[in-house]
Each structure stands twice: as C-alpha cells, then as structure tokens.
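Researcher: I'd like a structural prediction for the single chain below. Treat it as a standalone chain; there are no partners to consider.
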Amino acid sequence: MPTYDVPVARHELTAAPRTAYLIASGDLRPAANVAGWPTQASVEAAITSAFAGIGWAVERAHPFDPAKGHGFIDSQRAGMTVFKTIPANAPLIVAEAVWQYSHHVLAGLRTHRGPILTVANFAGDWPGLVGLLGLNGGLTKMNVPYSTLWSVDFTDEWFIGGITEWTSTGTITHDASHVHDLPALSDSPERRLGEALAAQLVTDKAIFGVFDEGCMGMYNAIIDDELMNPLGIYKERLSQSALWAEMQTVTDSDADAVGAWLRDRGMTFALGTDDATELTERQLRWQFKLYIAALRIGDDFGVDALGIQYQQGLKDLSPASDLAEGLINNVDRPPVTSRDGSRVLWEGRAVPLANEADEGVAIDALITNRVWSAMGLDPATTLHDVRWGETWGDDFVWVFEISGAVPPSHFADGYAGAVGWRQNPVYFPKGGSTIKGVSKPGEVVWSRVYVAGGRLHLDLGRATAVELPTAETERRWNATNPEWPIMHAVLHGVSRDQFMARHKANHANVAYAPDAETADRALLAKAALFAKLGVQVHLCGDVVIAK
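Model: Treating it as a single chain, here is the predicted structure.
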C-alpha cells in the first residue's frame, strides 16, 4: 500500500483557547515599511496589553524580519504564506498603524472563517486609520463580515468595551443612527435636473481614462465594469508606460510655459538643489510635462475623466503626478494645446480627476462635475484622505488631506494661496511638487461611492470647511504631512466614531457650494441623479432634502 505526504489543510489547524492571531499588512515600498515599523510595533504592544487585560492572549502570526527591518506582510505571496499557519476559525486581528496595500491580505481574509477585527491607531503621524478604512472597504466589497475599532492609546473605556464585545460575541455593534436611505423625492427643479442628467449619461455615455488600474493595493477602489457600465461610464484602460513615453515628446519650452503661467498667477515653490531631498526645477519640468502629456493622451481617447495611478511603477521614473492632477481638475489652469497646436484642450473646463485611480471617486467626480456645471457652480472636486482629527471648540474637526493634488479653486486665494513643497522621499523617491494650501472656509457636499452586496452605494452628506487659527493649522500639518493640502472639515450630524464605523474607503470626495442653501440643492440634484441610475443612496447626518 503506497503512502503519501498529505498536506495538513488549514481548516484542520486548531487555535488555542482565548487567543487571537494578529497580522499586519504593510506597504509595497520597503522604505515606507522600515520607517513605519517602530510605530506599528508600539501599536501592537498596546493592543496586546489591552487584550491581556480582559484575559486574552494575542499571538503574532508572522515574525519581525531583521533582514528587511520590519514585520509587515509586504506582498500578496507573503500574505498567502502567513495565512497557511493561521487556523481558519481563529479570531483574527488585522492591526494597522501605517498605509497598507489591502491585496497583501485579501486572499487570506476572503476565506477566513473566524471573526475578523480590524484595528488602527487614531493618530496623525502615521496613517493607520487611512489604511484601516481602505481595508474595511475591501472587506465590504468582498462581503466578508468584519468588526472594526480604533483608539488613540488603546486604554479608553470605549475601546476596551469593544474588544470585550468582540471576544464574547465575534461582532461589535456601532451606532449607525445617522444613516438614512434616500426617501421618495417630490417633484423639484433639482430632481428634474438630476434625472435628466442621468438619462443623458446613460444615453450618450462617458469614458473614464485610467492609467494602470489598481492603485496601491486599493481593492476597494476598483469598480468592476459590470457595475460601472450600467451608469453609462466605460473605462479606457491606459498605460503609465505610454504616459512616460508621451512625456518624452513634450518640449522643454512647452513645459516651462506651464511653470511661467503658474508663477504669474501667484503660485510659489519651495526650491532647493538636492534632487534626493529637495524640490528642484528639474522635477518641476517633468511634472509640467506629465500635465501636458496626460491631457494629450486623454484627448486622443476622448475621455471624460482621468485617473493616474502613479504608485507603483511611475514613481521609479518620474516625479509625482499630484501637481498635474490638481491642475487638471481646475477650471482655470495653464492652457495645453493639441499636438498640432490647433486647439486648447478642455478650454475653460475642469477634467474630473480621480487621484490614485480611485474608481469610486472617478464615478463621483464625473457625476459631480456634471451636476455642479449644470447649476453654474465650480465643478472642481478634491479626493481627500480621511486622515485624522481632533475636537476644536464644540466641534470635531477632521483633517482631510490628499497627497498634493487639490484644485487651486478650493483655496481662498486660488493659485496665490498655493505653495509647492517636495514630496516625502520615503514615498516619492523622484520627488515632485505638491499643491500645498488650506482649503477655504465654506459649505461642502461630501460623498463616497463604494461596493457592498454586489451593487453600488453612495454615502452622501454635508459638511462645513472651517477656518482655524494659523497656529492650530500648523500644529495639525506638523502632526500629519505638512507638504500636503489640508481641509478642516466639520461633518454635519456625524460624530467621529459614527463616520469611522460607517465609511467604506480611505477617501472622501468633496465639492464646494457658495452657501448652505445652494449646497443643499446641489446635494438633492446629485442624489436624484444617482438614484435614477440605480445606485443605492444613503443620506448621512443632518441633510436638508425635500421629500
């Protein structure tokens, strides 16, 4: 009788009692993982201590790698290997103190049968909560049940109560009383506008040009064609290698004309001479070439919106894409002519831009652009990281930041309020300028398109961008990324923890209106448009809407 070496299936592994396994998904960039490891180690120690306090052990499922200088899962293959050693029914903690590439762990999480808890530090210096929200969005898209928690120091009563509930029941209940499905809408000019724009989009159709789909491991940011196409939106899948090739054809004089235009409008740049650590004129010239090249390729394919992935690949060739992205999504921007010089491309129009090729934002930005344009409003949108926040006065004021790409019309002084700073060398080895500034105070509509239950959903709410004292703005900048543009956002009727528990992405999309009444009317038109397209619309917080 022959004998065989029969592998042990993962479901046959046995978890120790009152023990949770812990994993940490990391970045794909080695420098980022090394830089973030001390903070991650501190967070894991605090989580382990909190669980010990309720009589539970935490077993780290993968070791620190001294050769790499960190203990993160840093690739999809590494994640698959780690999950081979985790009992399929074991309670599992995914602890995040840094930005993480969700696809590193999605294969294991998709088939894990035990309770899953995602946990992040609520801090500004390392974007754990940003990574957490992106991972949560991916789990939601996969229909994988999970619970989620966050804490400043992991000793507060709310956090301890949360882990106690999770270890007892396998779930955590959060307050979602701020969320309401869109009611039946009464007849109004806004409803008629939204529904007419929806019919036009489905009939005439639109193209989203995406450079290298699947940015930075954001599984939640990929919207399948089967969900996007019924809206009338189709993808033109473009290559960043083609973008780089097109950049080689842009003349120095054309690139320099972009820089001269920006300086004439009052934008300044914090320049140095060391390419490795400072912003240089050489980096700017390549960014101006990227700006021109992206618009020309977009024109070639007749796109209605663009998304640039940048990470990975392009970061090893070119300075950052953020400067170009912010300009493209602004109505007033340096003119770019077609290759033959006969036309100014998208003259007087903002091109909806999905930073980091986030396709949920692509849908949102394209539709917002059409609603706001039809209403005579500035159609520029900003995709922001939900970065961090603290109470100021009577309000919880969020720090919304994105990695450098903001339309200058979102600043009170426009281009004169914009300063270009070099991107952090840890993440951007080739450098490049950001569009640094403070978003102007005013009324805002915020939103997020995401996938849940196999269909598209839209969370939609109102906010106010507020002005904080200069010293407080600087403190918040220095606690996060001082080179990036910042918005001080107060969400209407949504607490910090309600937002964290509900939000299904690391990004939120924002658009301005000149006053509260106009913002409410624009929100209504946008809700009507999405509803007509068959998207499930959820109103979050205090929203004024005619039924």
